[in-house]
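Hi P.,

Sorry for the delay on this. The queue was packed all week, but I finally got your sequence through. Input first:
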Amino acid sequence: MKINHLTSAEENLMKLFWKLDSFYLKDVMEQHPEPKPHQNTVSTYLKILVEKGYLSTEKEGRIFKYTVIMPFQDYKKFLLTELFHNFFHDSGKEILEFLMSENLISQDDLRGYFDLKIEIKPTRVKAPKLEIANEILNPKKEKKTKEKKKEKEKKKKK
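Then the structure:
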């Protein structure tokens, strides 16, 4: 499903619609904080949001019932992905640096998050083979016997 960008006015109305989930025009007018927009303005925005795929309509007699069909989580993901691509060059590190430099997230927040999310399991590490050290500490019998044979041959030659 393609998600369309919202203007700030559309986004502000959608915040109310996400809370209501399913509503009539009169519900919007009652729930909207002061200063309340004109009913025709809200009606125009409702039509636009239906066209953009954020709302669906169902006719009940002479009035329409509106239902949110674009979940808030999907819109939030869309916005964050746009920011990630357009302003942070697809870099998670750049986003974290920005959030920390603007004091929007702290190192304690990150520590707490990663302490909860990451399980560190101990792994067995194979010790590297120390062949030279082993040869010095535990000389093989073959070498000793070869060395002894060489020494015996030298003695015989003398």
